[in-house]
Amino acid sequence: MVKSYLRFEHLRTFGIVASGTANAVWTPDASPSSSGKRTGAGQAVVPANEEVLTWDIKKGELLARWRDPKCKSEVSCISQSKTDRDIFAVGYADGSIRLWDSKTATVILSFNGHRAAVSTLSFDRSGSRLASGSKDAHIIVWDLIAEVGLYRLRGHKDAITKIEFLRGEDEDALGGNTDGWLISTGKDTLIKLWDLSTQHCVETHVAHHGECWTMAVSPDQRGCITAGNDGELKVWGIDTSALSTRAKADSDCLIPRGTLYRQTKDRATSVTFHPTSNFVASHGADKNVEIWRIRTEDEVKKALKRKRKRKEAKSVATAAADDDGSKPPDEDTPETLAAAEVGDVFVSYVTLRTGGKVRSVDWATRGGTKASDAVQILVSCTNNTLEFYDIPKTVRTEGKKDSAEVPDYNKVYAVDLPGHRTDIRALALSSDDRMLASASSGSLKIWNVHTSTCIRTFECGYALSCAFLPGDKIVVVGTKAGAIELFDVASSAIIDTIQAHEGSIWSLQVHPDGKSLVTGSADKHVKFWEFQIVQEEIPGTKRTTPRLKLAHTRTLKLTDDVLAVRISPNGALLAIALLDNTVKVFFTSTLKHLLNLYGHKLPVLSLDISSDSKLIATCSADKNVKIWGLDFGDCHKSFFAHQDSVMHVAFERDSHNFFSAGKDRLIKYWDGDKFEQILKMDGHHGEVWALAVGRVSEIVVSASHDKSIRVWSQTDEEIFLEEEREKELEELYETTLTTSLDADTNNPDGPEATSTSKQTLDTLMAGERLMAALDIGTIDLAQTAGPRNPVFIALGNISADQHVLRTTQKIPAAHLQDALLVLPFERVRALLVFVDIWARKAVNIPLTCRVLFFILKTHHRQIVAAKTMRVMLDSVRVNLRTALLCQKDQMGFNLAAVRFVGAAVEAGRNREFGDEEARREEEERGRRKRGFATVA
């Protein structure tokens, strides 16, 4: 009988505030207070590996979690729409883009056109188009209304670092360029200006000597700043008036104005203008955010005047020393902004010192009274934190020089409690699996496993191992400094710190009887500690309080560093992994040597013993996992388990099945009796450092370099090994298939503007479904008598053309062209027959036209060569023209009705204002004169 297993699936993720894979975006609170003012600090939309999280900055609460179950790639870029603040575009590392509605946390649109990670996204002013730049050096412009990719722009030779839409002064005027322009920078040192009406690059400049890392366009679009190496920022002027006449003019629209230099000489990874105030923020990969202030026109003129006076004083002094000195300039020369240098306009304002290395910044634009007194900035750090700073604006009095004092800034809020600052190195579950302890360098956190909330946070040393003591009220931590630290969960206090070893405590375990503890250290010692309750006097009183103490009882000296220790569940044996690649097994009671386990080529990093104390599993840096028998020390099986070092191994409760976790980001589930891999659990985006298996429930908890803690739960779904192997082979085939198809279409020497097609598994499947529908539909059309295909009867006895139309309508608009590319020419003939029927019946004319025009453009040569298709094409032309004329009449009638209703609404809303005295005079003129009797 074939043995079946139960599948483990990803249940939840927590422990991550913001990952360093993408930028964070600030957005105002969703609902203002009753007074109309927004009282909170706003919300932060941040990446969290493959998810997007929304945090309340003031409360530190998680408000929303956006996750697409189909996507396992990391978020690489986030952008907010300028028109609808609820719409966010999110780019992913696999080249896909999803548009999310923040109110409902659902995907509105999905695009897939890039062959590498999306590096930058930008909405146009109307919010109807989205431009995306990628590490594949391509730019794609997407139409969000039609849900299709418009074109792909190829001109850069390296990854795109930033793109922005530009608009000319006459863009909205009649005859202006309604498509607009696009400005882009890349790691190929270039800055390019694209005319989107012709889809060509009209200007190219070498921005920097090295890579151009980022760019920011000013809110008024009159200038931009690019960032290069060595702290260099170059300021460019944008001649918006010359954009419309760019084709005829010889002058450049991008004009270099000068160079700014950051205080630190590393490259700037981000530059951003404040949307409403005159500030610019820039940061690199360090802990500093530099902020410049842009002077007003009057301040620039004053600065130029002071500079001119200093120059005059210098020239006068020179002329006094030398008779041939230059003549002093005229004092009445007016100061013009054209003479100003970059340093006269941009002045250093303040440098923020953040808690961690900066990943991204975003300005917060809150309304209210404080907006005029201070500016706020959101900082996302690489150490899993968000920080919110308040920067006061300095009040400058007229007639006085600029204050020399540096403006003070203060960190108002921080979101840091729901995650660790550094990698989690140890995990431990409580006896009932309700609590989880996670330990890293500097902090120990206790989590509620079911609600994913952080219950307690303790400061500790560099933790390498941890465990719950019996009763689940105390957590013990072994540190890199050789100390054992005891923490009380209930009172949130540290109980005791014992300097137990002279080297790092790599491993510790509570004895199965719950009365003692064993620790293994790099000082080549294994020590045994007993739990003792000591009555301690409370200072100043005669009362005593019970306190837990660790009493050192025995020490086992070894020949090499101890990397892992494990006591068998029956308490009889002690297994110790040493730095010399061996595992030694001792009797726990007498500490006499029993077995030596040789075989690993590199040190054993972790080991575990099965519940029945019969098997021991060891994992090593040599990428292998070995299963040994504890009775004779024989190696039952050796697996090449992972593609990198195997960090942890743990047996399942009451079973010989076990889990292994490696630096290759995978967790694997193995059968220790049949020596076969059962399941591969992928989800982490970094090395998996630690693993904990449930003691009473069927869960596995893992912690990774990506700062996330993931819970995997056993489901009721049965899996069979043969099916799993077949599924893995299919996935491998599918990935190689789509990669080979992409290689065929990705021609680097092609034209500058090309189509946005990219074959994916979804488009191939859609094409196959369409082919199947065409096959049965063609047979049904040709058949005059006899039973119909059961598919049509099952769908309500619909006609063949309805079935093909439904199948076509179900294909997403963004995938339609790629799905049609899958069809061979014979199926294209069949599809044209159905297009003719759709045109004759005038159903879904927009879709019919899209399908027809794409087919004609793609298969033009074959269609022209086939004389038999002329009759069909004539029929399509006549039917389609009739349907379009009918739709044109309908649209004209509806448009006239809408205009009539609009005019009536406007007439009801507007009131004519006239001069009352003129109206009275008009009435008097029209009235017949009356005679009045006069009394003398």
TrEMBL record:
Q: Which UniProt keywords apply?
A: Repeat, WD repeat
Small-subunit processome Utp12 domain ranges (all copies)? 801-901
- Domain of life of the organism in this record? Eukaryota
**Which SUPFAM superfamilies does the annotation name?**
Nucleoporin domain (SSF117289), WD40 repeat-like (SSF50978)
Q: Could you tell me which residues belong to the region Disordered?
A: 303-334, 737-759, 914-936
Spell out the Polar residues composition-biased ranges: 742-759
Family named by the database record? Belongs to the WD repeat WDR3/UTP12 family.
Q: What is this protein called?
A: Beta transducin
Species of origin reads Discina gigas
Report the gene name: DIP2
